[in-house]
Amino acid sequence: MKLHSLQHLPATRSTSGDAWKIAANRIARHYKWSIEAGFHHFQSPGLIIVEDDLIFSPDFLTYFQATAPLLDCDPTLWVISAWNDNGFEHLVHDRKQLQRTQFMPGLGWLLQRKIWDNELAEKWPMEISAAKQKVQTLNWDHWMRDPSQHQGRSVLFPQMPRAFHNGSVGTFMDPKMHQRYFAKIMINQENISWKIPSIQSSRELDPDVLAAQYDRYEARVIQKLKSAHVPNSIPELSQLMLSKKNVLAVWIDVDPESSGPVNQGKFGAVARFFGMWHEAKRGAHRGMHELWWGETHILLLNLHFKVGYIEGSWKNSPDGRCTASPAVSLNAIACDPESKLPCCSSGGWCGQSPLHCDCKRCFDFRKMLPNYRQLMPPTAKVFTSQDFASATPPARIVTRKMCCAVRCLSFGDAQVSLAGSHFVKGPSVWLEYCMGDERQQESTYADHGMYRAHSMCISRCIVCMTWK
């Protein structure tokens, strides 16, 4: 059977309730319908889920082919993404390095059939109250980021994204947000060679994929920390960031649950300094962000006591949270997950006690990864948000893009001729109005009469060649 397309006819719109909640519900329902349809029509072990406003790298599919087998041999992973929330042009360096995070990035991701069937399908957030016609759920991606879904497992993602989010207008997107968090994302534009395991030799993984396996990944981080420079002041940090081939370990103590615009919130000052997302959990693994500043590798490590545990669980002791009465060791006993003190293990174990609860919806605290505090040198400086509040970051080192007869992908014929005229003979020769040249001022674009009207189209060259 050749299947070209399927169409999901939307349900009748609700006219009551907050508009964003209604929209979130419709999107969640569409995602569920699409995933179920995909698994129904194709007998594949997994699906790659994409959106209609994504632009893909040349190696988008081979990236997933190379990384997919890791899901079967590493139980600490649960999905694979093509996106890096902090994959900005000034923060990435290695086209093949893979990273981990407990924060679901989305925007091009691989979902296994067994995860869908056994964990997500039944409880996917899409319920509407029939009586009041009001949405009773969160956004589907926020729901995926909840510990009750990921259970401490990680998402694998590339340091340099394999997808670019091209849409600047949408239900939860506007041009200002797109310009701040999406327009400067550095998509890989080379057809990278990945080793694809054969069916007969599924263990022959690409070396960079094998390096992302949990034990090897942690060993690499530990080795980096052992050789890292530890700055003791913001001026020293700024100086080291501009040095070549340094490895820096920057230790911070900032509440990971504080979020707000980049100039607000406890993590906002840190985010502003490095030019990254204002939400501390995006792209973080055990509270650590891996960033690059030119050829300087930065490990930004958060020591806050909330890092690494289920949100809110830090308020209570991991023991004594089971309401079950004592029973013979290892025997299942009753447990009420709706009580104020539910059992604390998805496997039924009550903390470190010998009691066992027959409870499928409880959290396993032991699966939550702690931060890297035990690896911090005793004399290391621990920075707070106040240290970054008034600090001026060093000059950004950006991978430039040069236009090569780029066709406008966003608008019609009137813009195609202009965008298609961009041509550069070499990396040191820039056309006067080449929209990939970030050295030009915004006023130049505006004077050209196109920038403000069509910023999504020409604020950057989407399919350009890259050079450093």
UniProtKB/TrEMBL annotation:
Keywords: Glycosyltransferase, Golgi apparatus, Manganese, Membrane, Metal-binding, Ribonucleoprotein, Ribosomal protein, Signal-anchor, Transferase, Transmembrane, Transmembrane helix. InterPro entries: Glyco_trans_13 (IPR004139), Glycosyltransferase_13 (IPR052261), Nucleotide-diphossugar_trans (IPR029044). It is a single-pass type II membrane protein. One of its GO terms (molecular function) is metal ion binding. Its EC number is 2.4.1.101. Pathway: Protein modification; protein glycosylation. It is found in: Golgi apparatus membrane. GO terms for cellular component: Golgi membrane; ribosome. It catalyses: N(4)-(alpha-D-Man-(1->3)-[alpha-D-Man-(1->3)-[alpha-D-Man-(1->6)]-alpha-D-Man-(1->6)]-beta-D-Man-(1->4)-beta-D-GlcNAc-(1->4)-beta-D-GlcNAc)-L-asparaginyl-[protein] (N-glucan mannose isomer 5A1,2) + UDP-N-acetyl-alpha-D-glucosamine = N(4)-{beta-D-GlcNAc-(1->2)-alpha-D-Man-(1->3)-[alpha-D-Man-(1->3)-[alpha-D-Man-(1->6)]-alpha-D-Man-(1->6)]-beta-D-Man-(1->4)-beta-D-GlcNAc-(1->4)-beta-D-GlcNAc}-L-asparaginyl-[protein] + UDP + H(+). The keyword Transmembrane helix applies. Signal peptide: none annotated. SUPFAM superfamilies: Nucleotide-diphospho-sugar transferases. Its cofactor is Mn(2+). Belongs to the glycosyltransferase 13 family. This is alpha-1,3-mannosyl-glycoprotein 2-beta-N-acetylglucosaminyltransferase.
